[in-house]
Write a structure and sequence with these properties.
117 residues; globular; 27% helix; alpha+beta
Length: 117
């Protein structure tokens, strides 16, 4: 993978770009979205850039997908009394702009507009 091919998430994982990290394990990282669309808007991202979409991840590593859901719940427990929406955008026309699978953990009133990411 060339330097140009690395996603912003890979750069955050490698600590090249700062982020407000709220949780981290050996396989996942969770951090606040820089353009929040709800009072709580955290991204849960695998540390591997192997998968572009949630469908790819589910087919190849359902255990890692389950870890993502568990981390989303943990983040919601810590930041939003356990209530949240979990959103995966898959494909450019669905609003995905970073092609490194990630989940949006949203809590509180959503702002107008679409979820990009």
């Amino acid at each position: 993978m060339t330097e140009e091919d690395r996603s912003i998430f890979s750069r955050i994982i490698d600590r090249e770009i700062p982020a407000r990290i709220v949780a981290e394990t050996e396989t996942l990282i969770a951090f606040h979205d820089v353009a929040p669309q709800a009072p709580v808007h955290v991204l849960v991202v695998p540390k591997t850039a192997t998968f572009s979409t949630v469908a790819e991840l589910a087919a190849a590593d359902p255990g890692l997908l389950a870890e993502m859901v568990n981390m989303a719940q943990s983040v919601a427990n810590d930041l939003a009394h356990g209530d949240y929406r979990l959103v995966f955008n898959s494909g450019a026309s669905a609003g995905q702009t970073v092609f490194h699978v990630h989940a949006h953990v949203l809590a509180g009133a959503l702002e107008e507009g679409t979820l990009a990411g």
